[in-house]
Specification:
260 residues; alpha/beta; 14% strand; globular; binds nicotinamide-adenine-dinucleotide
Amino acid sequence: MRLEGKIAIITGGASGIGLATVQKFVREGAKVLIADISLERAQHASDEIAAAGFDGATAACQVDVSVFAEVEAMVARAVEVFGRVDVIFNNAGIAGGRPLLEHEPEKDYAPILRVDQDGVYYGILAAGRQFKKQGGGGVIISTSSIYGEQAAELSFTYSAAKAAVISFTRSAAYELAEHGVRAVAITPGRVGTPIINQFSDELKATFAAEQVRNKLTRPEEIADVVAFLASDEANAINGTVVSVDDGYSVFKQRLDLPVF
Ligand SMILES: NC(=O)c1ccc[n+]([C@@H]2O[C@H](COP(=O)([O-])OP(=O)(O)OC[C@H]3O[C@@H](n4cnc5c(N)ncnc54)[C@H](O)[C@@H]3O)[C@@H](O)[C@H]2O)c1
């Protein structure tokens, strides 16, 4: 078990990529604070994991990652329940948007930045301080997106926030290296979670066709990579972006070319 004895905080842990990662971490021997804006869904996830034979391996915590005091309280809660923190997965996020010229800044800019950008900054800051207090060590993994590296429809603000996550990761790796802390960002492509599953079958098929295997990535496949990145086996990966996009970023469109 590659995460035996590790204590992790996973934000957005009640759904999608976060929930799959909670389940994977527990199977790998970690104890996890499932942190989400919905305490009810976080508690439900924790109860189900306990019922599956992992009693005591998780605890639920309500957090709005866009509020620093709540993120600090989340880190303190993990220490209170499990004694320390070894890994934080800054994964909570919201998506959506409108064409730029239809923006109302107070609706289309600030709210997404608060969760997707500020939330990751707060997680890095609060966990970084805890890591230092513990005497060093620790891993910070943060969820960016393919959109953090490119322009796309309806994602003017989302792309900016996800680009900031990549920048935060580089800077955190640099600044926290003296405390033995590693930081890594992941860029998922098209993952079959509620963010994508809300769309029509036709649109989901289009999304799938943008990836090399012509299918949506399963959240469990992202979780497998995050578990590796959190483990000591990934000690040489630091400050960089790990693409988990099934080739999305390496090709544009599959063409039916005649042989020539
Ligand atoms: N699904 C995809 O295709 C995809 C692709 C690239 C990146 N991502 C990113 O992956 C991450 C997880 O997304 P997902 O697809 O699993 O979505 P999801 O909606 O299934 O899960 C997101 C979770 O975050 C929680 N959350 C939302 N706002 C919060 C807040 N302010 N504080 C605490 N928790 C909050 C939600 O309650 C939810 O449980 C997000 O950062 C998203 O931007 C997703």
